[in-house]
Design goal:
single chain; alpha/beta; six-stranded mixed sheet
Length: about 180
């Protein structure tokens, strides 16, 4: 403090550039974002390549997951906290076992707060309504975690304290249900 006017707009694909070249980790406290919600089957060739390059493998994940991985790599060894608005698909089905196992196991990610699924819409003429979650995380743990639950996805949430927030956004131990070829 005092706050200074200092716009620094970088026009680039944030998955292809070094975030450290844009801003030093030492200058950050938070990363907040609303990455693109592009499902696996709607991605362009370039978007699939972005995912493949970040995950070092071909993966069937929503495009938004790339920001979770990129941020998790970037915040290693820091006290930076991250929060993203995402489609709720990243906390359901096969994506959980792929994305969150990677983040928890390889980057020590811990979820600090989570808004469970709610209906997000805007006031634009072509109203884009989508079911989303908001997830706050870091590469360190805290004791005061919060889950915001919605009895009705169109209403206000109620806040609940949690000991641990797992990748399904519930207060429980961390586990991953992975894809199986046999029951």
């Amino acid at each position: 403090l005092p706050l200074k006017k200092s716009a620094n707009i970088v026009h680039a694909n944030s998955l292809q550039i070094s975030w450290e070249d844009v801003i030093s980790k030492e200058q950050l406290t938070y990363i907040l974002g609303n990455p693109p919600f592009i499902g696996e089957r709607y991605q362009s060739k370039q978007q699939r390549l972005d995912l493949e390059n970040l995950f070092n493998a071909k993966v069937k994940l929503d495009y938004v997951t790339a920001w979770y991985l990129k941020a998790s790599k970037y915040i290693q060894g820091t006290k930076i906290k991250v929060a993203f608005v995402s489609t709720n698909s990243i906390v359901q089905g096969e994506q959980v076992g792929i994305l969150w196992k990677e983040l928890f196991s390889n980057y020590g990610i811990k979820i600090h707060f989570a808004h469970q699924t709610f209906n997000w819409s805007n006031e634009a003429k072509s109203n884009a309504a989508v079911y989303v979650v908001i997830i706050g995380f870091a590469s360190f743990d805290i004791t005061n975690k919060k889950i915001f639950e919605y009895e009705n996805i169109n209403e206000e949430p109620f806040e609940k304290e949690a000991k641990n927030i797992n990748p399904y956004l519930v207060d429980s131990n961390d586990f991953f249900i992975e894809k199986r070829s046999k029951p």
